[in-house]
Amino acid sequence: MNITKANEILSITVPTPFPVGPVNCYVIKGDAITLVDTGPRTSEAKEALQYQLQQHGLTFEQLDQVVLTHHHPDHIGLVGMLMKEGKQVLGHWKNDRWLQLSDSFLKEYETFMTSIYREAGVSEEYFDHVRDVRGYHSYADRAQCDFHLSEGDSIPGCTGWTVMETPGHAQSHISLLHEQSGTMIAGDHLIKNISSNPLLEPPYVKGTERPKPLLQQRNSYQKTLDAHLSFVYTGHGEPILNPDELIRERFLKQEDRSAKVASFLKEEPLTAFELCQKLFPGIYKKQTGLTLSETIGHLDYLFSEGVITKIQSGEKALYRRR
After folding, report:
1. Which residues of 228-245 are buried (b: 16+ CB within 10 A; e: fewer)?
2. What is the pTM of this model?
3. CA angle, 314 then 316 then 317, to 5°
């Protein structure tokens, strides 16, 4: 990597209470000392973050700003604490409703997911999962972005670092690109050993079409492929030394899984939940939201490719092969 000393990258790994395991945060030492992501709001994460900063000769007080790759609690949990210490917070504007997490937005989210579950034909016994977001986001302080970052923006105080919008796993997701060295800080956009779930979210403008996260993720992968990267710092696990190869593998795996979904529709039309049960037997019971989001993502892809059609039957939707 040809990143100048003025843009030294420090890697910090902190524990989370989530199945994904520890999360990686990063410090960019440029004209500004910039923390990228924070870890969850737990005493263990705060202590680990503080200790590892100290190992690098830094304290919370010396941080100038925090950049958020996306709004999930394992990445934003401690941002409220850092805001109270006077740190500037930068991120995509789509973080805002998640950082503030008002009662009205929580109700909007749960109403949206309930409608998704009903259309998908989900059994009533799994409807409690629409409220999982409340427990998940209890690991994040309420906060706000002081500055919004969009495609192509420079990161203040970090020479050569710019923003690439990479939605899919989250609508708010950005990655940080150092084009000269072919380096990216990718958050959960690209992870070496696991493929990030494309997650359903309500539209940001009421009454408009919902986002299609798997299609967005594929577009984000293609943008990353076009950047010809040589090194990727990830939100979980090891860095990626062969990002182009990994992205091509992800494309193929997505297409293979979509083909599997299409194969289930050879005999008869099925609902999204029936397909989810076939695609993720056993897992869907504990991770209904995650597995249903991915299943619907594959249906979005197959529909965009003209492979399937959608038939409305009351509240439920059925899918069949063309």
Report:
1. ebbbbbbbbbebbeebee
2. 0.95
3. 110
Distances from the Cα of 266 to the Cα of 28, 65, 263, angstroms:
52, 53, 5
Tokens of 3: 């990143």
With a cut of 80, say whether residue 131 has pLDDT above it.
Answer: yes
Determine contact, residues 94/172, Cβ cutoff 8 Å. Answer: yes
Distance CA 214, CA 293 (A): 9
Strands 23-29 and 33-36: antiparallel
Name the E strands within 92-188.
147-148, 161-165, 174-178, 183-185
* Three-state secondary structure call for residue 197: coil
Q: At what angle do helices 103-120 and 272-279 cross, to 10 degrees?
A: 80
Residue 207: is it exposed, middle or buried by C-beta count within 10 angstroms (0-12/13-18/19+)?
exposed
Q: What angle do CA 151, 72, 47 make, to 5 degrees?
A: 115
CA-to-CA separations, 180 to 74, 129, 154, 191, 308, in angstroms, rounded: 29, 44, 13, 22, 43
34 contacts 155 by C-beta, under 8 angstroms: yes
Q: Distance of CA 176 to CAs 22, 90, 145, 306, 315, Å?
A: 20, 12, 17, 34, 41
- For CA atoms 59, 180, 67, 49, the dihedral sign is negative
Structure tokens at 7: 């843009």
Domains of the chain: 5-100+140-241 (3.60.15.10), 103-135+254-321 (1.10.10)
User: Residue 124 and residue 273: Cα distance in Å, rounded?
Assistant: 12
pLDDT in tens, 199-252: 999 999 988 999 999 999 999 999 999 999 999 999 999 999 999 999 999 999
Question: What is the rounded distance in angstroms from the CA atom of residue 7 to the CA atom of residue 233?
Answer: 14
